[in-house]
Description:
This protein is mainly α and about 270 residues long.
Amino acid sequence: MTSVRHLIHQQLHEKALYSAREYLRFEAELIGILQELDRNKTYLHFQMPSLFAYTTKLLHLSQHIALTLIGIARKSIQVPELKAAIEEKKITISNARRIAPILNSENKRGWIEKAATLSQAKLECELAKSFPEKPSPTKIKYKTESSVRLEVDLQAKTLEKLKRVQEILSQKKQAHIGAASTLDLVLDEFIEKHDPIQRAQRAIQRVNFSNEPDKHCVVSLLHHANSPGMVSNLHLRNVRFFPSPGALDGWLAARSAQFPATHPLADIHPAYLQ
């Protein structure tokens, strides 16, 4: 039984190796074909306005793969060593795509060598050191009514902190916690600890109401410590009891008339106890 299963696994492994070799061979071959198509503008013969349109509409390649292979094909006209390295299986298409934009006749030897020996992450790090990009603006795109995609530039050390927190949370919960869930949990904890409004609400909840059994309204005065209008500088100043909502509204009206809108004590938040 064991020998039969071993034979099955071995056959599947051999098929996988063969398919992988063929896949890599056809990738390199397709790059050469794309060069010929581009040179002869064959796509125009099939009423396609560009090589990209030809590869996506007639060859049914994804936009990402089409752009990758076309970029490598065109760069390989200028730097033939790039295509040769792919054909010799020295570098992957993925790494070739990363060095293609910066490759030229002067730096080709060094960067092809790096693409052949470095992992994708390390190669990207080397590219970033040699060709630093300006910080990109933060982008927020709504994907659904309740979810957004956030694109933001981070320092490498900030990313390492995020990964560390993600690792700690995953160990604590005995399950994988994604980056988005990690941010959600960390932000919840920060707001709970540091949001002045939440801190004031907790302070109100700690007030002893046992001596005021008939009073169902309370006002919390949130006082601007230094900067009027800055919510981050609010803290609980006082708690007042009122016998009815009408009494509370009257007090608020008198208070508003007493202080101008810019006065620190003008920012009053009523909290009603049902």
